[in-house]
TrEMBL record:
Residue sites binding a divalent metal cation 1 per the record: H9, H11, E97, D207
SUPFAM superfamilies reported in the protein's UniProt record: Metallo-dependent hydrolases (SSF51556)
Organism taxonomic ancestry: Bacteria, Pseudomonadati, Pseudomonadota, Gammaproteobacteria, Enterobacterales
CDD domains in UniProt: TatD_DNAse
Name of the protein described by the UniProt record: Putative deoxyribonuclease
């Protein structure tokens, strides 16, 4: 019997999945993946991820404004998010992908934090969990999460911090997202951290199509 997994983070609206949805879902099912959460990254793809979730039974949507795409977000984007959540679509199961990101020369970190806070308020208002992006910001993110104290917590996806940081998120009630990146030799520190965490604190994800697992030696 094949185990049924849930991929908690897959950008199924991106190529190579877009335009090849049925075959992609068939391959996922053959690999034991029964459900897939598709997080939005900007207001422009809210309708797309919701339409995918409505059309394909295994898919579920999350709606949010990604911190690495600030140039695409405005106050109107936040209003669109609020309006979409207000309708309470049955297959929208989380607010995400949201968070903080210090990559780049001008991350506009103050605006990122404001945008995160506003989206955490929406998650709390609509009683939804959050899918969190965090790059070089784990400590700051934990501060925001503690302050908002969501009744439905969520997951810190693609985690690559220290054991202390992971334990802090777990103490706050959040899960740690584990994906294919831990299969690479350079990820030994992250593997060590994951190995020390309780299994119940971990969630599986692919973050496809961006982060594939390392191919097995000799595999085609």
């Amino acid at each position: 019997m094949i185990c049924r997994f849930i991929d908690t983070h897959c950008h199924f609206d991106f190529p190579p999945f877009s335009g090849d949805e049925e075959a992609s879902l068939q391959r996922a099912a053959q690999a034991g993946v029964g459900k897939i959460i598709v997080p939005a990254t900007e207001a422009e793809n809210f309708a797309r991820v919701q339409a995918l979730a409505e059309k394909y039974q295994p898919l579920y949507a999350a709606l949010g404004l990604h911190p690495g795409m600030l140039e695409k977000h405005s106050d109107v984007s936040l209003e669109q998010l609020q309006q979409a959540l207000e309708r309470r679509p049955a297959k929208v199961v989380a607010v995400g992908e949201i968070g903080l990101d210090l990559f780049g020369d001008d991350p506009q970190f103050e605006r990122q934090q404001w945008l995160l806070d506003e989206q955490l308020k929406l998650a709390k208002r609509y009683d939804l969990p959050v899918i969190l992006h965090s790059r070089r910001t784990h400590d700051k993110l934990a501060m925001h999460l503690k302050r908002h104290d969501l009744p439905c917590t969520g997951v810190v996806h693609g985690f690559s911090g220290s054991l202390q940081q992971a334990e802090r998120f777990v103490q706050l009630g959040y899960k740690i997202g584990v994906g294919g990146t831990i299969t690479y030799p350079r990820a030994s520190k992250t593997r060590d951290v994951i190995a020390k965490l309780p299994l119940a604190s971990l969630l599986l994800e692919t973050d496809a199509p961006g982060y594939a697992a390392q191919r097995l030696s000799g595999a085609a």
